[in-house]
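task queued by scheduler; priority normal; single chain, no ligands, no partner chains; default sampling; output format set to structure tokens
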Amino acid sequence: MPDYTYLIVGGGMTADAAAHAVREVDPAGSIGIIGAERHPPYDRPPLTKALWKGEPEDKIWRKTAETGAVLHEGRRVMAIDSRAHSATDDRGATYRFKKLLLATGGTPRQLPLKTDQIIYFRTLDDYRRLRALAAHDVRFAVMGGGFIGSEIAAALRMQGRNVTMLVPEAGVGARVFPSDLAAFLVDYYRKKGVTMRMGEGMAGLEARAGSCVVRTTTGAEVTAEVVVAGLGILPSVELAEQAGLGVDNGIVVDELCRTSHLDIYAAGDVANFANPALGTRLRVEHEDNANTMGRVAGLNMGGRATPYHHLPFFYSDLFELGYEAVGDVDARLETVAEWKEPFREGVVYYLKAGRVRGVLLWNTWGQVDHARALIAEPGPFTAKDLKGRLPR
């Protein structure tokens, strides 16, 4: 029975960040990492961005080995006994721990048809498979106009592939971007050669003559050899539930990343945490949160009390356009846009009751910390007050 001072369940960026932080505080404590993938931890964002633009694959690997952690790859933890401080994996192996971190991430939402022609894009293996398919002249259908859908559609089109996007909303990124920006992106993608099917969700899906046929909510059909599903993820809370931990849209943690059991922590995509700047609880599925919260969880596990008050940011690349965003960027909020060049470079502020809740930096770089500072200000702000606030 392996016996670790620190056991980390999940083998992604959060796990790596936590292992490095633990080692900072505790040079001697043993660390075990159990991950479902048959790879050591790696950076995930390049799978939809830099690797498609020519960055070599060997750049994605994290330096987890430097921590001295023992990696148990290709294994899934099936049960946790919080009283006995033990975890059991899918091969029947049991691991003892003093401190446990749940960095289990999330599971992609599934489509009703079971076929290898559907790729739920999340892992390195998914990237390798899709990249190999993109070398062939086949038709691709991308479901969803969110982060994964918009990035993958752009990546495939840059390889010269036939790409159709099916988006239930009226615009690309419609849940995040103001309606005029989301509509601009539809035309932008069309000019790049992507077939845009807007306002069309999926009503049915079937295999037919070697292809996938999507029946849309308008009664139309879209045929493709490969379907990429960018439908978001569900937080992987099953282990936490089995262990009797508090769960509510993720695993509920305090400011030290502790769950309802003081020796069990959670961080990354799966963790629901309180954010002082916004005065609400969040669950964030982006790289900055994975790295920063993983690090804070590791410091706390090692004994260096460190509150997690960080307001994460996220970023994306869409062909030649790119952006960074911080805070609550929700298209349902009041938005104030200040464009240096309409839809090409500028800042969008998201307001609620006179307070700035989020900031979208559109092709505007190096302003994330200033945006965080603005969100922390109590306001109230008007559109006139915000003119010229960023960049600074």
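post-processing summary
- The longest helix spans residues 287-302.
- The chain has three domains: 3-107+233-302, 110-229, 320-386.
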